[in-house]
Amino acid sequence: MTTRTWTPPGPYDLGRTLGVLARxxxxxxxxxxxxxxxxxxxxxxxxxxxxxxxxxxGRVDAEAWGPGAEWLxxxxxxxxxxxxxxxxxxxxxxxxxxxxxxxxGLRLARTGLVLESLIPxxxxxxxxxxxxxxxxxxxxxxxxxxxxGPDPRMRVMPSARxxxxxxxxxxxxxxxxxxxxxxxxxxARVAARLEEAAAMDDAQASRRLQAVPGIGxxxxxxxxxRSNGSPDAVTVGDLHLPKIIGYALTGARGTDDEAMxxxxxxxxxxxxxxCRLILLMGTRPPRRAPRxxxxxxxxx
Length: 300
Hints:
Endonuclease III, domain 1; 7 strands; DNA repair; DNA-7-methylguanine glycosylase activity
């Protein structure tokens, strides 16, 4: 075990900053302790590692295990949002101003790891969150490896080669259709090239990711929000986000992507941060249609 301490430059909210990295409440690679601390198992360029981060009120203490421990502690400030600049954001709507006031400790995490965010984002394409979370959990339990450190429940995701070698019946057993599994296999085969996107600007990184068939703007944005800590990678093509943003800012229902981007135009360069703040307020349009139905391919 190795340790490091990082001191935030101002108010800091560990849970909201790192919470976006969790893929559902049963994520084998992420959990929150009773004291609000965060456990994270990941595959670094140096190998598997586990990170435990605790907010001590004015400082953040971290300890790490495994071959990737040194890398995890070296990149700790970036993960915790040290490179993020909340001061660059200016609220333009009353609700956004209130969200900004209520959540001064929100920072945008940057993992520096592309495949780790890309694969679960592909799993989330055109299915319910519960379906995607279940698939991620089952695939890590079957094809991942035990995480270094003291928690035997945690798992590190497979290597790129490991993802590419998953047999078709295991994809099917996890409820992942052929289109999504084929996209993940294609991405795993060019993983080294995709990881380079972590050092690129948003436009270049998005182009790199979308060069893989099956990865579009939605998946690229969801990935870059986490791997690059992008404050502007707004998610387009989402079933719910435009309606939430439109209702929160104008009270209108049925907002589409084009109208959402128009509403977010005053936040150019910070559109993802604006969306995060709006979502934190919990303002949602009244539900009129039935929930998106679960399509379990395992029954086919």
